[in-house]
Specification:
Layout lengths: L1 H18 L3 E3 L8 E5 L1 H13 L3 E5 L2 E5 L2 E2 L4 E5 L3 E5 L7 E3 L2 E8 L2 E7 L2 E3 L2 H14 L20 E6 L2 E6 L2 E3 L6 E4 L2 E6 L2 E4 L8 E4 L2 E6 L2 E4 L4 E5 L6 E7 L2 E4 L4 E7 L2 E24 L4 E23 L9 E13 L25 E4 L6 E15 L34 E23 L4 E14 L2 E3 L8 E4 L2 E4 L1
Parallel strand pairs: 1-3, 2-4, 3-6, 4-7, 5-9, 6-10, 7-11, 9-12, 10-13, 11-14, 12-15, 13-16, 14-17, 15-18, 16-19, 17-20, 18-21, 19-22, 20-23, 21-24, 22-25, 23-25, 24-25, 25-26, 26-27, 26-28, 27-29, 28-30, 29-30, 30-31, 30-32, 31-33, 31-34
Antiparallel strand pairs: 8-9
Length: about 500
């Protein structure tokens, strides 16, 4: 925790230094606020001028500022006063591509940069994405993915923000909305503060809330995320980098995918991540998903004080092997002080872009910790957990009995999601290929009787249960079923 506090203090100092820099009004550079004039060249001139003259803030006041791709440079902060809206152009050819991504605001190899204020960045992504789609159909734009599902590849749709290899970044107070692709991606960056922002990112496919890729020393706190895809997503795109020293604190998240997720991609790894006092609600997939499926590792992770309401799944930990020979690993995970309510119906029903239905129909899935036969998930502690399930599982959905656990497929190369196995033999927790699992003061509460067992252990070695509480109407079976496991203690 000392390292985390040092990161927070450093980022606060960086933010304070920026606020003392000179301010330049956007109008000084001929930037128009009428919402129709394309300001790309004028905004870039302002950024370049401030960068070349000792740094400072480019300040936008009330108005709509239309622009294509701009490049933020060292010692420059874009400051959006309340009522200022930076608006992305609807013309796909007004956007540039770098590092295989398209974006409204780029920064590569810069330092001491930021976007602050109470204003808005509006990517107009739904319209931009559909304009790109139209041009792909006409043959004007080529889609590298072959237009899968009749939607353009995410790399040719503009993100709102893409920063790579940057240091000392502050994203503070703003509203980020309607990207054409991922909302904001920070790739191989150091000393990043994302604080007090509102994200409305549910206009199109792949609209993540924030993507933190192979970064070191990151704080994401006091933010609100509403996303069509994963809310807070940590990734590791390079085997030569890892995501580490990340502090995710006091955020509220709603998505049609996962609330807080590690991977995919997970090539390098994730280390020393603290996820404290967060709320996930109305979310289709898992409140937290940790997936090591591309050869990388996940270790030394702390989740504390998580509230998950109307979320399709609570905890999903998964080791996989999407490419042969690249097996992940996972070790030292602590999850504590969790309250969760899992609904019977689809948790994101009615949103613009709902989560997919490819794994339906199925019964409500349990929390799951699933390794591989030759690579176990190790040292997972679950403490002070209370999860409410609807129960009432339907055995006609391809029931798997406790004497036929081999029917649960391994699927090491499958994309990792909590629903990937469809039917599982447990309604509370399903744990497979794991070592050193500790339950302390865990309560599983089932509203209606379920034909499944509360907890199923399959190839689990070294599991302890202290103060386990299971409530289920009409329960006539043991709370825990153990198979091919050793050293299981109550």
């Amino acid at each position: 925790m000392k390292a985390t506090k040092a990161v927070v203090l450093a980022l606060i100092v960086i933010s304070s230094i920026k606020m003392q820099a000179q301010d330049y009004k956007a109008s000084l550079f001929g930037i128009q606020s009428n919402g129709t004039t394309l300001n790309t060249t004028s905004i870039q001139k302002g950024i370049d001028y401030i960068h070349e003259n000792g740094g400072g803030r480019l300040v936008f006041y009330v108005g709509r500022y239309l622009t294509g791709t701009i490049h933020l440079k060292s010692n420059v902060t874009i400051h959006l006063e309340e009522g200022a809206i930076l608006v992305g152009s609807l013309n796909p050819f007004d956007y540039e591509k770098m590092s295989n991504w398209t974006a409204l605001i780029f920064a590569h190899g810069q330092e001491n940069i930021g976007i602050t204020g109470k204003g808005v960045i509006d990517g107009q992504g739904y319209q931009v994405a559909n304009n790109i789609l139209s041009m792909v159909h006409k043959g004007v734009i080529k889609d590298p993915g072959g237009l899968k599902y009749d939607r353009p590849r995410e790399t040719i749709r503009p993100q709102n923000i893409y920063f790579k290899g940057c240091k000392n970044i502050t994203i503070q107070g703003i509203i980020l909305k309607d990207p054409g692709s991922w909302n904001q991606q920070y790739d191989q960056c150091t000393n990043l503060l994302v604080e007090g922002i509102i994200v409305d990112s549910k206009s199109y496919w792949n609209n993540d809330g924030v993507d933190i890729v192979d970064c070191d020393s990151v704080v994401v706190r006091n933010c609100y995320f509403d996303a069509a895809d994963d809310g807070i997503c940590l990734k590791s795109h390079s085997a030569d980098f890892i995501c580490q020293n990340v502090y995710i604190y006091n955020n509220t998240i709603r998505t049609s995918a996962n609330g807080i997720k590690f991977g995919t991609v997970s090539r390098g790894g994730f280390r020393n991540i603290k996820i404290i006092n967060n709320t996930v609600f109305d979310t289709y997939r898992s409140a937290i998903t940790f997936a090591a499926v591309d050869g990388g590792f996940i270790e030394d992770i702390v989740v504390d004080s998580l509230r998950s309401i109307n979320t399709g799944n609570v905890i999903f930990l998964r080791i996989g092997e999407r490419q042969k020979g690249l097996k992940g690993r996972m070790n030292n995970i602590s999850i504590s002080n969790v309250y969760a309510e899992v609904p019977l119906i689809k948790a994101d029903a009615g949103y613009n872009y709902e989560g997919p239905v490819e794994d339906l129909p199925r019964n409500v899935s349990p929390a799951a910790i699933v390794g591989m036969p030759d690579v176990s998930i190790t040292n997972v502690t679950l403490k002070n957990i209370e999860i409410h399930y609807p129960g009432g599982g339907n055995p006609e959905y391809a029931r798997i009995g406790l004497d036929e656990l081999d029917k649960v497929p391994e699927m090491p190369d499958r994309y990792p999601e909590f629903s990937m196995f469809k039917e599982l033999p447990a309604w509370g927790f399903y744990i497979r290929h794991a070592k050193g699992i500790s339950f302390e003061n865990v309560s599983l509460i089932c509203e209606k009787e379920d034909y499944r067992t509360a907890i199923v252990l399959d190839d689990v070695h070294g599991a302890t249960f202290k103060s386990l509480k299971v409530e289920e109407p009409g329960k006539k079976k043991d709370a825990v079923y153990s198979c091919r496991s050793t050293k299981v203690e109550w």
